[in-house]
Design goal:
With 282 residues, this protein is an all-alpha fold. Helices cover 73% and strands 0% of the residues. It is globular, with a radius of gyration of 20 Å.
């Protein structure tokens, strides 16, 4: 049985793939996955859109039902007169409320506030991970660079508290590839992660996605097969199916799409898969 949040994610997987592959990954044009990267730290664009929490919240609440909107508005109102101790508790409640409905941008901003209040490794890692979810989820090309920058900043703060962890390397690798002029440094970080931990799900999944972005579908297939062998999911099967389809391997693509449909058990995904199978069978 899927939770409400899992259903939202599964139902959005087709959209998420489109967003992932449409991100402007600068300089990533069919690179050799194992090519060395420039050792200098990648630069992020110095001028990015400033993110207003009020604007983000207002926009995000437009898609909520009246009850959820009222709950969040009430917590936001409490913040105005809350003490510092009370604010931390409210930040946590608001972060969780937004997280529960899979709206990563407002959630990430509250997790950043939590980390500023409690500047521990786990707090900054959580903020970095949530900003990663946010820029991968966002369809606003003006906001995406700011979210990438915030992810990098959060991971760097976590790294200062506990250097060279695989979690931070993975997050930084993804962000560097997505939103900096030196994507190969990010690829190198991710390759270092899978060298140390060959079964690292997040690193393998994102290396697969970046391989798709650069048209290296054979490498993408191997990455997604690794992910599926460790933790099969509708998302991984869908990416594998899409990669096979791009390689014109119709039989393999159909089989993978069927696995996507089986695991997702979602009407929207089922309809999409049925259309795909019909196209590939003709």
């Amino acid at each position: 049985m899927f939770s409400r949040k899992q259903i939202i994610v599964v139902g959005s997987v087709v959209v998420l793939l489109g967003l992932m592959l449409s991100l402007d990954i600068q300089g990533l044009v069919k690179p050799d996955e194992g090519a060395p990267a420039n050792a200098s730290a990648p630069a992020v664009a110095s001028v990015v859109k400033q993110i207003s929490l009020d604007e983000v919240s207002q926009t995000a609440k437009e898609g909520l039902n009246a009850s959820l909107k009222a709950q969040i508005s009430d917590l936001e109102a409490q913040l105005k007169s809350a003490s510092d101790i009370e604010k931390l508790d409210l930040y946590k409640k608001l972060a969780q409320q937004w997280d529960d409905v899979n709206l990563a941008t407002p959630s990430s901003l509250y997790f950043e506030m939590i980390a500023e209040k409690v500047p521990a490794f786990d707090s900054w890692l959580k903020a970095g991970d949530k900003f990663t979810d946010a820029y991968q989820q966002s369809m606003d090309t003006l906001v995406q660079p700011a979210l990438v920058q915030k992810a990098i900043s959060s991971y760097q703060k976590a790294d200062k508290l506990k250097p060279n962890t695989l979690e931070v390397k993975t997050g930084l690798g993804i962000a560097y590839v997505t939103g900096t002029p030196n994507p190969m440094q990010g690829i190198t970080l991710l390759l270092d992660v899978v060298k140390q931990d060959p079964k690292n799900l997040k690193a393998n999944l994102n290396l697969g996605l970046f391989s798709m972005k650069s048209g290296q579908f054979d490498k993408a297939v191997e990455r997604f097969k690794t992910v599926i062998a460790i933790a099969p999911s509708a998302e991984a099967w869908f990416y594998l199916a899409s990669s096979f389809e791009s390689m014109d391997k119709k039989t393999e693509a159909i089989a993978a799409y069927l696995k996507t449909k089986e695991i997702a058990a979602d009407p929207n995904m089922s309809q999409f898969v049925d259309r795909k199978i019909n196209e590939l069978s003709n």
